[in-house]
Amino acid sequence: MNIPNRITISRILLIPIIIILLSVPFQWGAYDIGGQSLPISHLIAAVLFIIASTTDWVDGYYARRFNLVTNLGKFLDPLADKLLVSAALISLVELGAAPAWIVILIISREFAVTGLRLVAVGEGIVLAASQMGKLKTTIQIVATSALLLHNFPFSYVSFPFATLTLYAAMIITVISGVEYFIKNWHVMRGSK
Q1: How far apart are CA 140 and CA 35, in angstroms?
Q2: Is pLDDT at 29 greater than 90 in this prediction?
Q3: Which residues are within 8 A (CB) of 153 and not within 5 positions of it... i.e. 6 or more apart?
């Protein structure tokens, strides 16, 4: 249980707090931002989500820099990312801030790729994340953060940044999933 793994676990432990902040109607007040109301509980959830997302880079950098890469870390790190983004997106669907069909596509891709990785592990093959996969994660985090912030600061100029980045995240998520399966189809073909 080294420092990068502890950072990853802290990211996972923030998930229920973020869900509670988004799900429970706390009466802590709200900020008026560009004609929109941003509840303080949603602002806190967004800040925690951004902090948790940042720890993904921190734990990876620290693990590589100090040669602390472990099998536990290889398992927990992508799991933590998927849990964090999925939990936030599902909460946003419940709040009416994200269309369910987009969130279903994004989460379905994550399940499919995770399934392929499990098949590969069974065959003794480790499938590395692609550059497109890393871009996908970054855009998902930006879109989710913007939605959690109710499109702040873009709501002041009536620019639908949160919505546009969510659509971009969906498109890149699907493309990266297809690319991942095409590149690694030999794993499925050769599995026993």
Answers
A1: 25
A2: yes
A3: 33, 34
